[in-house]
């Protein structure tokens, strides 16, 4: 384990939640849940593991986590994140049908249904429930016995057994008024809120009356129902804030302050499901409200996924100002579910600060030293904004470029950019770099944006010359200096290349080496991530499409379990046959030779 991972593991809380293992490229390779995050994450390194777990542990380079309030929430969040990120070491939940709901229909004669499908206009939904299958269905069965609601999907012309045993009001033979259901609907709602007092009081009266009449069997049945209701209602009432009953996209923002630093966590609910956590530590300038509002302005200006609403603890005038300047509605939740979620986001921000405080301070000090060293090396006083570029393609297909931004020594992911090469005739790193540089700075000039003080390209003179040609055509060659980063035979950052062919080999123990190496690794990670996303839907898929009998369903299975063609090529026929037939697995291997 690297020192940063060890440091983070030591500070993981002993609370329920979800943990995310990441590889050296920042890719999520496994999502897991735990009642105790600290104990569970440490188990991976403290005991002998099976082959699969050993392979996972070998690739672990970083960890992230989200704390929740109970086990039910951790189960739901785990399922959401697995379906979103499709980590290669998760299998079971990738195609799972989802957790069930209990729905009270809005029909004239309502029913209680047990379903995995969420249809907004069907009725009032309770859940979803991630408890053991037997428990959640027992709760449903208990409700059916307690409330004499209609059981039939279509109303018959004659009575049924449920009417005879007192578990249905019998709309098939009786003229039932809608008002008669009001009491039951209210009691069901209170039951799911963890307040079954009225139900229990009614059952207690029935139990006592049955005992007076010496009907001990009926009295015993009522006592058992009371006992079951108390246990079931308590479990149902466990607050669940992972999946909301909303079809809209919503963000919830929490923050934590310590020693002039602010940690910000943004929970993003996509279609009502918590799928993303954005988090960042930054220096606190000015008041807290000013810092948060300025951060959110920049965040939503740069992001492509604008939610409908954003819940954040800010003053009313700032909320109104942000709402007027952006495309979304800012709200400060006073109470209710969103207030609880906001408080949990703040708790996560605090834990993120505790896990990363010393790392951030150390990185900040090293960055400051590295900046000073880099200024001396390059004879550049101002390095407020640095752009770094990398290109990627496979056999001339899926040609893409990527740019990351370093603002005042810190990665600013809001300024990252992805590029799809538009020139179909381009077939070299020179052509790719030229197009990307030309497009980026043409746009920045047009929009009057602040230009970088330095451009770094991943590569040598070929990439440098391409960048300089593009800058020359925009009259920026004398304004923006360009350098390249070259690697040694072990594919590690080795030195700086200048346009005049001068090369400075870097001391691997120096701050400037660590700074530039991290930059080069980050831009490569960003480019590879974008490339994989496109490759999964184009080259990767097109090659598999050529295999007779494979089909889209099986292609999607393979896409869920492998990141690239190389991984499929290296997989054995036996391994591939877990997902496809043996003869098709052989055909895949033959095709990829």
What would you say this structure looks like, in words?
The chain is built from 20 helices and 19 strands. It has 593 residues and is α+β, with helices and mostly antiparallel strands. A hairpin with a 2-residue loop joins strand 12 (385-394) and strand 13. The longest helix is centred in the middle third of the chain and has 42 residues, at 337-378. The protein is elongated. It starts with a helix and ends with a helix.
Bulk shape: elongated
Distance linking N and C termini: 36 Å
Residue share in β-strands? 15-25%
Main sheet properties: 8 strands, mixed
Which percent bin holds the helix content? 40-55%
Quaternary state of the chains: single chain
Mean pLDDT equals 82
Short description:
The protein is 46% helix and 19% strand.
Question: Which short descriptors sum up this protein?
Answer:
593 residues; alpha+beta; five-stranded mixed β-sheet; 20 helices; elongated
SSE diagram, text form:
Blueprint: H1 3-10, E1 17-22, E2 28-34, H2 37-46, H3 51-59, E3 62-67, H4 71-85, E4 101-105, E5 112-115, E6 123-126, H5 133-146, H6 161-164, H7 182-192, H8 197-212, H9 216-236, E7 250-258, E8 261-270, E9 273-283, H10 288-302, E10 309-311, H11 316-325, E11 329-331, H12 337-378, E12 385-394, E13 397-407, E14 410-411, E15 417-420, H13 429-446, E16 454-458, H14 461-473, E17 482-487, E18 493-497, E19 503-505, H15 511-537, H16 539-545, H17 551-561, H18 565-570, H19 573-576, H20 582-591
Parallel strand pairs: 7-10, 10-11, 12-16, 16-17
Antiparallel strand pairs: 1-2, 1-3, 4-5, 4-6, 7-8, 8-9, 12-13, 13-14, 13-15, 17-18, 18-19
Helix pairs in contact: 5-9, 8-9, 10-11, 12-15, 13-14, 15-16, 16-17
